[in-house]
What we know:
Blueprint: H1 2-27, H2 29-40, E1 41-47, E2 53-54, E3 60-72, H3 80-91, H4 95-102, E4 109-115, H5 117-126, E5 131-140, H6 148-151, H7 163-167, H8 169-172, E6 176-183, E7 189-191, E8 206-207, H9 212-228, E9 233-240, E10 246-252, H10 265-268, H11 271-274, H12 284-293, E11 302-304, E12 309-312, E13 315-318, E14 325-327, H13 328-333, H14 337-347, H15 349-359, H16 385-392, H17 401-412, H18 430-435, H19 443-459, E15 473-482, E16 488-500, E17 507-514, H20 522-525, H21 527-540, H22 546-552, H23 591-600, E18 606-608, E19 613-618, E20 634-638
Parallel strand pairs: 2-8, 18-20
Antiparallel strand pairs: 1-6, 2-3, 3-4, 3-5, 6-7, 9-10, 9-17, 11-14, 12-13, 15-16, 16-17, 19-20
Amino acid sequence: MRFLCVAAFIAILWCSLWGRAFSLQVVDPQELGRRALRQHLTSELVTGRRGKILDRDNRVLASTLAIKSVFVRPYEVESPYTVSVRLAGILGVDPKFIRKKIRKGRNFVWIKRKIDDRAAAAIKKQGLKGVYLQTEFGRVYPNKMLSGNLLGYVGIDEKGLAGIEYAFNKTLTGSSSKFVVQRDAAGRRLFLQGAEETTPLQGDDISLTIDSEVQFFAEQAVQYAVNAYDAKWGGAMVVDVASGDVLAWAQAPMFNPNVFGQYSSSQRRDRIAQDAFEMGSTIKPFLMAAALEENIIEPDTLVFCENGRWRLHNVRIRDTKKLQWLTAKKVLSYSSNIGTAKIGLDLGATKYRDYLVRLGFGKKSPLPLAGQSSGILRPLKRWTQVDLANAAFGQGFSATMPQLAEAYLALANGGVRKPLRLVKNFSLAENVQKERSQRIFSEETARNVLAMMQDVVEHGTGKSAAISGVSIGGKTGTAQKASRSGGYGGKYTSSFVGLVPAQNPRFITLVVVDEPAKNYYGSKVAAPAFKEIAMRYMALNGTLPDSEQSRLFATTAPAKRKPTYGERRFDVGGKPQISGESVPDLRGKSVRFAMEIYARQGIIPSVQGSGAFVKKQKPAAGAKWSAGAKQQYILWLSEQS
């Protein structure tokens, strides 16, 4: 009986094993195979790192860092409650939110994208089943607000949404590689099909023509002008004449693309490229150039300016002063609207508008930026005599700052157009290059207009832009803004364009301040900002006269009162001028400036805190330099000077 019982038990067990084997191999092999693949094999998508954005000297303006993101595979989770509670405690989110995501029945759900390293380490330490960390890339702008409006920003998926990031998104974006990975019993990944050797292509870098130092002090000068005159907005451009390179593209108020969500769309807007303004009297040099080219006037041609009041077809044109007979040169120097209007009427609408079109007004700039405005230049058939008179002194049509910069570049380049360049590795189409390289004015005409503009700064409305020992050509502009209800209201745009040196310009600087409140004349609002930028740029290149150089880099103890405009220090662009046996006072100086001072002594200081300026130093100013190991050199940083 015992034998039969044991035999029966073994027979039943043997049949059960064969039955299970039959079920696994014959009845359910496909379903079980799919389940095995889901448990042990998975496909992963790896995207290459986004390319960098660099300035002309290869300093990083935008870079990409590896950042962890957390996701869950719900079918692997054993206890949704436990997972949700533990993740919520680490990530600072509602546990119900996580449980809701886990229970959706999908194979893959993101819990939170781009978490910090501390949270990633805590999640890894928990060892939660079904919870994974994946490496993604996050965009970082190390200089914070520097060039923020120009650079733009990217979204959560590293897709460019504005500025250079948007315009060159395809170039900057890295390619993706999808491959299958197998996990062992411990959950470690094993690469299959040679995928371990597959390296995703990185995005290409973009090199701008922007000079970070010039950009910095241009932004500082514009921000100061906006604050000083309670203006709505300010912008500045610095252009190298020889190459057409844009060295600075500064705007204020500025915004930080690292936290772009904290700003409104208007604050993020690149108004230099996307907004057109009536430029006022800064247009007058082109009217003079066209009239000289067509032999309508000579520099010494006399024009009667009607004692500052003149009526044309029931429209009254005014000057700020009661001017009578002026030469054409003085008409520009004193910025007479009446004199300019009369010259414009003699030139005629057909010829004047043709020159404006050939200079690039009414067309989008060829700069590789999305959303550019083409300005407003009405068809010739809609021009009346009053329209012509208004257009002669810069009212009635609008232009962007790049359009104005390129037009002035033609004057500085001997009358030949030259395209602006903002991105080094970007070439214009052949037909665009040809159009942008045509001669507009003769060399003699360009030379005469530059001489007129020099007189503007030396004897006319641009005196506040003068720099001792430097010949400067320039033109002020004060334009009434059109009202939404029709006509012109009580708001203004102030501007100044300067060329240095006057007769053989090396660089052009444009400053536009929109809706200043305390004063609206370009000579008072925009010209001082130009002067500050020009002095800094010349100091950077070693061409500033000694008298101005000593004033610019005078080292004084930090003042308790707020410095006035001319006294404000912007040391990031300067070359360190300090030497001696004792440690100088570096408080309020830029980090770059301070580091160069230490480097000259063969010392590398330790840096504490974050920011662009030195707040505190050790040892204090006046201490003797010592390269010994006992002496500690420490700089404490701050965001503000």
